[in-house]
Amino acid sequence: MTEVYISRQPLVNRQSRIIATRLLLHLAADGDMPAAVMALDSLASVWPTGGKPLFVNCPASAIDARLLDWSAPENATIELPAACLLGQHGPDLIAAIQTWQPTICLHFDPQAAQALSLGLPYRFIGFDTESLNNAQLKLLAARTRSHGMGIAFQVPTTADFRAGMDAGLAAAAGWFFTAPSGTPAKTISASQANIVRLLNLVRNNAEIREVEAALKQDVAISYRLLRYINSAGFGLSCEIQSFRHAVTMLGYDKLNRWLSLLLGTASKDPMAPALMHTALVRARLMELLATGLVDKPEYDNLFITGAFSLLDALLGLGMEQILEAMRLPEPISDALLGNGGRYQPFLDLALASEAGDGRAIAEQAAMLGLTAAQFNAAQLQALAFADAMEF
Description:
Layout: E1 5-12, E2 18-26, H1 33-41, E3 54-57, E4 76-81, H2 82-86, H3 90-100, E5 103-107, H4 112-116, E6 124-128, H5 134-144, E7 149-153, H6 158-166, E8 171-173, H7 190-203, H8 208-216, H9 219-229, H10 243-250, H11 252-265, H12 272-289, H13 299-308, H14 311-315, H15 319-324, H16 330-336, H17 344-355, H18 358-367, H19 372-388
Parallel strand pairs: 2-3, 3-4, 4-5, 5-6, 6-7, 7-8
Antiparallel strand pairs: 1-2, 1-8
């Protein structure tokens, strides 16, 4: 059985939040539905049931009724091109849908009108923005609204995202938001500078009294730290009211991670929620991919590499300018600047998971000695981590 690698795309709503994720299955030239189903079945133990919806996309040429052999979790949505319902395997596929009643996203194509008349329950209608202009998208979204919520696929730019939202669509899928937008800032803001100062203190193992003093100088950071550590998810039996106690309870490693993520929240970019979610996925994914491949003390560094990988987009600054303000370990800086080093292969694989090239993912994973099953499972675990984080 050939290995099946999965890449992903986020679905972003008009509030710039990631509300779901597309899982795109890449089958080898000789791959077929049983291989896809086996890959999906292997994810049962890590599938984030009860979490945000996950859309499953298989190559149209491979889709047949055997796709429904997969016991899809409740939060799974199966994407189906209209042509698949009307082609050679259509009758068997329709019968399987009527039997198992999975959540379906119908891909709008030239045969969509006929597919919509079949009486099948579609939850979503997906539109390919590469083949439709904005006027067509608006018209089709209005005409199909009674059949399902509209989603734009393959959205290339933020302007196209806004156009899709103006057309009345519920969400747009793509990585349009990861490119830095707007005019680059000249320097980091005062709030960002305070977080960087704290990061440098923590990374250099400064005395707790110095960290405490720095916290007291920024009311916003102090408030967020106390709120975070006193949250139900942290599981403390008593309330933390002093900064010294908070720092002691967290420890420098966790405080370093928390501050690294907090730096991104200082962004004024309108796409900041989607960017933060993506940075969290990259951070956790890199950490998981490295398990057993690097020494445990380096896991935090890999997490931070992923978390910082979108700081240029979040803060509107060049990566070199951002790193000048920090005293980061050389492997982190090298990876973020694309200069190689031992963390670069992990960042490259995390980025490949977003690019949609199955062969590139396979090659990058092979360099690290990772199987498709390991890589795919790590992605779902990273998604669950990012979904659960409240920042």
